[in-house]
Model the fold of this input.
Amino acid sequence: EAGVAQSPRYKIIEKRQSVAFWCNPISGHATLYWYQQILGQGPKLLIQFQNNGVVDDSQLPKDRFSAERLKGVDSTLKIQPAKLEDSAVYLCASSYTGVFEKLFFGSGTQLSVL
Amino acid sequence: GESVGLHLPTLSVQEGDNSIINCAYSNSASDYFIWYKQESGKGPQFIIDIRSNMDKRQGQRVTVLLNKTVKHLSLQIAATQPGDSAVYFCAENTGFQKLVFGTGTRLLVSP
Done:
């Protein structure tokens, strides 16, 4: 089966610019996650969707980050305006139901903010 | 690709040795735990999971042990191979299917 697809693979922007990341989860997976992974750290959950509804966005910096999952399939994560500390790998993951289930991760988008 | 975990704890072993990677988790109410392997430039890859009603679970060359009394999780890899070199993360489900990841351990396997 196809894995979680993410694009772009790399992105370099200057601070205060905006950027968007795209994720296509595994077909049939109802739960979708966006994680931020800063170099040397474990992934940190930003937002969790169940179908097209938000389950948890408690750690999403809502003043600059936004995410949507229209039609309960693809998802986009946006940062506007970006800060230097946003430099990280942004990982998308999905699972069938999210209940006692492993997450399947994409390869991530590596963001560098200069 | 990106190098993951430049300042992580590191475990160095020889090929063929058994490896043990440890993890202390934070939430005594966590009911599900997963070990992930992350190679440079890639997303985390599932290795093995365990629910809180179990103490041990075995997979192919891997065993996870759970000690709820001291909130400790370990991953044992038998006959470690160079391809096992990666960063290993434990993750705990703290509720509502919210996985919280640990800081990771780098495993280096020498041929």
Notes: The longest strand of chain B covers residues 86-93. Chain B is about 0% helix and 50% strand.
